[in-house]
Amino acid sequence: xxxxDDARFFLAVARCGTLRKAANELHVDQATVGRRxxxxxxxxxxxxxxxxxxxxxxxxxxxxxxxxxxxxxNAVQAIAxxxxxxDESLCGNVRIATTDTLAEAFVIPALQRLREQHPxxxxxxxxxxxxxxxxxxxxxxxxxxxxxxxxxxxxxxLATIExxxxxxxxxxxxxxxxxxxxxLRGHNLLMFPRELVPRHWSSFCGETLIDPNVVLQCNxxxxxxxxxxxxxxxxxxxxxLADNDPELVRILPENQDWVDIWLVLHPxxxxxxxxxxxxxxxxxxxxxxxx
Length: 291
Prior knowledge:
Elements lengths: L3 H13 L2 H8 L3 H15 L4 E3 L4 E3 L1 H25 L7 E7 L1 H18 L3 E7 L6 H4 L3 E4 L9 E14 L1 H7 L13 E3 L11 E2 L2 E2 L5 E4 L3 H9 L4 E5 H4 L6 E3 L5 E9 L7 H15 L4
Parallel strand pairs: 3-4, 3-5, 7-10, 7-11
Antiparallel strand pairs: 1-2, 5-13, 6-11, 6-12, 6-13, 8-9
């Protein structure tokens, strides 16, 4: 009979690909992860992973088990949420999943106000560029730039963020100012990888691209801003990040790209007082942004 304690070690290695990364995720040492995986395989009488010097990949049995173990994880998390769904105490931890950019501009200021009002509430902040189903990551709520297609989650639009094209004055002195309608030909572009934001590779803030000269692909907007500030090329950045940056110049200001920002919440948790307090603080933070 499989138990969750075994399954969570299997799931961590399957997601991370190495014992070291899985150990960091589980907050244990690497030897413990290796020992637990070996014991789990021995109890099943079959290998779950194909080991190479660089990584662990799933064996045929591991691939068959993965979806079932993920369902097991979701069930465990659902039980935990329901156990605290009616909690009226303004204390405890809330796990928020969002992007590094939104965390810096909106979530951190919200948490500062939250600490003043409810100092017994703590937050675990999980940042990534592309937030998938929040139950997969074990977060209580997510703030993301893509609306999930789910009837099982509470979804609310927090804001619509403006994005634009930016570069340094030095870059423009060397390469010239782009001309509208000329597809940014002759310019160095700094972009999210195609698999993350495919629409930018055909229309970069309203400019149709033809064989674009992409000199840097990066999955962090904060690092794209840094690359833009260092003169590597033209970046598509959130206006709240770039408009007040003295190092950056707005290019083709009539070109705008708009992104809706969504709050996604597990319905099991909407009645928990600590979660309601966090949501209220986040809504207040986003209300300060022009809609």
